[in-house]
Amino acid sequence: MTGPTGLVCVVGSLNDDTTLNVATLPAPGETTLTEGRRLASPGGKGANQAAAAAVLGAQVAMVGAIGDDEPGERSLAALRELGVDLAAVARRTEVGTGLAVITVDAAGENTIVVDAGANDSLSAQEAREAVAAAEPAVLLLQLEVPQDAVTAAARAATGAVVVLNPAPMPADPGPVRDVLPLVDVLVPNRSELGRLAGRPEPTDAGEVTACVAALDHAGSVVVTLGADGALCFE
In the β-sheet with 161-164, what is the strand arrangement from edge to edge? Predict the structure, then answer.
């Protein structure tokens, strides 16, 4: 999987996405009807990162795991069409490809429920060996695969720019905080930033700045703010 300088390596999830459009997101206990047709498509935070980088012209290698099933094959086919190197995507026979159900309201806000499936089987050894072999210039990470695989990948990425989208944030953010010194670019939303900083979710630029200052992280931070854009800290 070794490539020329400039290789982008993604260690992360491959999911089968089902997207449902609604007027408003349902409240707890509420049943809401969809508007329009449901959309089934390949997804997963990792696969989406790989696809986006490939569309932008980067040479991309994907590291992850799928089930031995039709959704997994669809995921591979979509990435293969974009020229993504799939040599380090493992196929599991004992568990299915990950599944995500995405609900999107009229304003574009969304909720996502994920069944990790095969994503949860990616081992630290697999991640470490794949990243070491790839020798990437950039390593893209998220948290839809086990934390130990994420940490192992970051440690193996000698000389690479390591980018972490800390989602979905686990109930205990401690292991995520532990990997921050290995990360060059952190890309959280407001909720994730607050959790990592051990503070309430920030509601304005001043609170965002205070949360960023509280992190044990010397690299860049890009805080996504939904419809309000993003704040960048160097």
Answer: 85-92, 60-67, 8-11, 138-141, 161-164, 185-186, 220-224, 230-233
Q: How many residues does the chain have?
A: 234
C-alpha distances in Å from residue 17, one per residue of 39, 139, 155, 180, 190? 8, 24, 30, 29, 24
Reported as a single tens digit per residue, the pLDDT across 54-81 is 999 999 999 999 999 999 999 999 999 9
How many angstroms separate the CA atoms of 107 and 117, rounded?
Answer: 30
Q: What integer pLDDT is reported at residue 5 of this predicted model?
A: 52
Q: How far apart are CA 72 and CA 44, in angstroms?
A: 11
Dist CA 124 CA 130 (whole Å): 10
| Angle, in degrees to the nearest 10, between helices 190-197 and 205-214 | 40
Note the Cα 32 to chain centre separation in Å. Answer: 28
Domains and CATH numbers, the chain: 8-14+44-95+118-233 (3.40.1190.20)
Per-residue pLDDT of 117-149, as tens digits, reads 999 999 999 999 999 999 999 999 999 999 999
* Burial group, residue 37, by CB count within 10 angstroms (0-12, 13-18, 19+): exposed
Does this model's pTM top 0.70? My answer is yes
Which residue's structure tokens are 């630029």?
205
**Exposure b/e, 150-187, CB count within 10 A at least 16 = b:** bbbbbbbbeebbbbbbbbebeeebeebbebbebbbbbb
Query: Of 191, 181, 125, 186, nearest to 156 (Cα)?
Result: 125
